[in-house]
C-alpha cells in the first residue's frame, strides 16, 4: 500500500539521515522511479525534503524535521504491530491501549496519508480463525504474555491428550505464537523447549522469580522447525486414491492441505476424468473419516486393509439407511452449486474441517 510505503520512507530518512534514491528503492523493494514519485508526494504534503545530486548526494529532511506521534506511551508503541489484529490484542488485554495508539498515530499523519489510512481501515479487515470454529477461552493469556515480556517463571497445570491427562509444569516462557486463531506459548521446561496450547492451561500463577532468557533462542526459527517436525510425525503412511472430476475442486475445502497438494501436484488423470494419486494419511481411522467427506467422489485403492475398512463402513451406512422395497424410489438430483460457494444470502456453505 502506498500510504504505508510513504510513511516507511519518511521514517527511514528520519532515522538514518541522508539516503540516495537507489538506497531507498532497495530498502522498500520498489523502483527508483517510484521513489521519485513518493518524494514528490511527501513534498506536496508539506514534508520539508530536499535532494542533492552527485556522488555524495541524496535525500534528507530539512532542519532536523521529525514526525510527531503526539505522546505515544511505551505500552502503546509496543502494541502497534497488532494494529491489524484487534481481536488478539483484546485477548492480550491490550485492546484499549491499541485503540489509543491508533488514534495518536492517525493524528500524527499528514492529511493525505490519513485519508489513505482511513480508507484502508474501512475496506480491509482480518479475521484469522477458520469458519465454524468455536472461540476458545484463554483466561491465562494475559498472565502468560506478561511472563514472556518480564521473563518470569510460571507454574501451570496443563491438560494434555495422554495419561496422565493433567500435569504440573514450571515454565520459562520465551515467546507467544498465534496460529490459526489458537495461542501457543513456547517455553523451556526441564532444559528443553516445548510448545503448549494456552487454552489447555487450567491453572497458572507467577513464581515470583525471573529466569535468564536463552540468548540463542529465535522464536521464528523455532516455530518453523516445530511445524516441520509436526508434519513429519503427523503423516505416518500413504494411501492410493481415485477422485472424480467433481471431487477434485472440493479437496481443499474438505480434506487436508497435504492431500489436496498431493493430488494437485502428483495426480494422474485417466480417460474417464478420475484422478489417481498417492496421498499422505495420519492413520487408517482418520483417513476413513476424512475420505468419506467426499462420499462417492472418492475411491480408496490401496492399502488393501484400508479399502476393506472403507467397504465395511460403507456397508454399515447402507444398512442403516436401507429403505423397505415399497419405499425405495429414486430421488431427483438436487440442483446445487458443486463448488460449495456461498448461497444467495451470503452465508458460507459448511465445508470447513
| Element-level helix/strand string | HHHEEHHHHHEEEEEHEHHEEHEH
Shape from CA axes? Answer: extended
Could you give the order of strands across the largest sheet? 6-5-4-3-7
Largest sheet: 5 strands, antiparallel
Structural class: alpha+beta
What is the CATH topology classification name of the largest domain? SH3 type barrels
CATH architecture of the largest domain: Roll
Task: Write down the CATH class of the largest domain.
Answer: Mainly Beta
Detail the poorly predicted runs.
336-353
Radius of gyration: 28 Å
Q: What does this 3D model show about the protein?
A:
- This protein is of the alpha+beta class and 353 residues long.
- It folds into 4 domains: 2-64, Winged helix-like DNA-binding domain superfamily/Winged helix DNA-binding domain (Arc Repressor Mutant, subunit A, Orthogonal Bundle); 74-123, no CATH class; 141-232, SH3 type barrels; 237-323, Alpha-Beta Plaits.
- It has 13 helices and 11 strands.
- The protein has helices at residues 2-16, 21-28, 32-44, 74-78, 86-91, 95-108, 111-123, 141-150, 219-234, 251-254, 257-266, 284-291, 304-320, and strands at residues 49-52, 58-61, 152-159, 166-179, 182-189, 192-197, 201-210, 237-243, 268-269, 275-281, 298-302.
- A 5-stranded antiparallel beta sheet has the order 6-5-4-3-7, with helices on one face. A 4-stranded antiparallel beta sheet has the order 9-10-8-11. Strands 1-2 form a two-stranded antiparallel ribbon.
- Helix 1 crosses helix 3 and helix 1 packs across helix 7.
- The radius of gyration is 28 Å and the shape is extended.
Amino acid at each position: 500500500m502506498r500510504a504505508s510505503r510513504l510513511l516507511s520512507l519518511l521514517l527511514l530518512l528520519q532515522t538514518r539521515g541522508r539516503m540516495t534514491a537507489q538506497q531507498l528503492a532497495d530498502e522498500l523493494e520498489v523502483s527508483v522511479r517510484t521513489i521519485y514519485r513518493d518524494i514528490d508526494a511527501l513534498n506536496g504534503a508539506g514534508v520539508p525534503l530536499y535532494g542533492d545530486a552527485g556522488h555524495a548526494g541524496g535525500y534528507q529532511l530539512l532542519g532536523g524535521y521529525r514526525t510527531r506521534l503526539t505522546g505515544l506511551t511505551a505500552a502503546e508503541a509496543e502494541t502497534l504491530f497488532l494494529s491489524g489484529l484487534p481481536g488478539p490484542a483484546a485477548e492480550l488485554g491490550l485492546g484499549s491501549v491499541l485503540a489509543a495508539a491508533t488514534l495518536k498515530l492517525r493524528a500524527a499523519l499528514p492529511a493525505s496519508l490519513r485519508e489513505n489510512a482511513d480508507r484502508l481501515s474501512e475496506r480491509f479487515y482480518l479475521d484469522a480463525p477458520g469458519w465454524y470454529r468455536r472461540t476458545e477461552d484463554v483466561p491465562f493469556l494475559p498472565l502468560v504474555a506478561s511472563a514472556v515480556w518480564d521473563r518470569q517463571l510460571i507454574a501451570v497445570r496443563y491438560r494434555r491428550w495422554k495419561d496422565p491427562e493433567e500435569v504440573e509444569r514450571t515454565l520459562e516462557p520465551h515467546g507467544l505464537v498465534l496460529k490459526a486463531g489458537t495461542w501457543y506459548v513456547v517455553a523451556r521446561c526441564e532444559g528443553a523447549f516445548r510448545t503448549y496450547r494456552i487454552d489447555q492451561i487450567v491453572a497458572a500463577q507467577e513464581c515470583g522469580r525471573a529466569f535468564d532468557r536463552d540468548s540463542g533462542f529465535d522464536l521464528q526459527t523455532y516455530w518453523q522447525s516445530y511445524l516441520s517436525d509436526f508434519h513429519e510425525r503427523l503423516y505416518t503412511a500413504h494411501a492410493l486414491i481415485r477422485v472424480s472430476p467433481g471431487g477434485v475442486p472440493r479437496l481443499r475445502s474438505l480434506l487436508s492441505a497435504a492431500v489436496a497438494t498431493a493430488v494437485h501436484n502428483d495426480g494422474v488423470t485417466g480417460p474417464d476424468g478420475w484422478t489417481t494419486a498417492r496421498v499422505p494419511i495420519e492413520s487408517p481411522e482418520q483417513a476413513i473419516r476424512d475420505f468419506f467427506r467426499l462420499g462417492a467422489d472418492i475411491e480408496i485403492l490401496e492399502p488393501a486393509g484400508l479399502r476393506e475398512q472403507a467397504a465395511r463402513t460403507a456397508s454399515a451406512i447402507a444398512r442403516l439407511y436401507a429403505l423397505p422395497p415399497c419405499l425405495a424410489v429414486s430421488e431427483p438430483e438436487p440442483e446445487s452449486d458443486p463448488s460449495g460457494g456461498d448461497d444467495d444470502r451470503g452465508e458460507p456453505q459448511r465445508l470447513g474441517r
